[in-house]
Design a protein that fits this description.
- This protein is mostly helical.
- The protein contains 4 helices and no strands.
- It has one domain (3-60).
- The longest helix is centred in the last third of the chain and has 13 residues, at 37-49.
- The radius of gyration is 12 Å and the shape is globular.
- The termini are far apart.
Length: 64
């Protein structure tokens, strides 16, 4: 998948989807590797949407 396709996916994710990925992504997931374009785009959008809230945290839980 190209970076452009990945960016489109990130930009279409809901806040809850982003929180879920943040919590349950496997170690080394490309959206969370510091210093790459995708991680910067993910982080910016996540912050714009408001990041985690107690309500979202409770709704997604801790088990996959």
């Amino acid at each position: 998948m190209t970076n452009e396709e990945e960016i489109k996916i990130i930009n279409n994710m809901s806040r809850e989807e982003m929180c879920h990925l943040w919590r349950f992504a496997p170690a080394g997931h490309k959206y969370f590797q510091r210093g790459n374009e995708l991680s910067e785009i993910f982080e910016k959008r996540f912050k714009e949407l408001g990041g985690f809230s107690p309500e979202i945290s409770k709704s997604i839980g801790w088990e996959k």
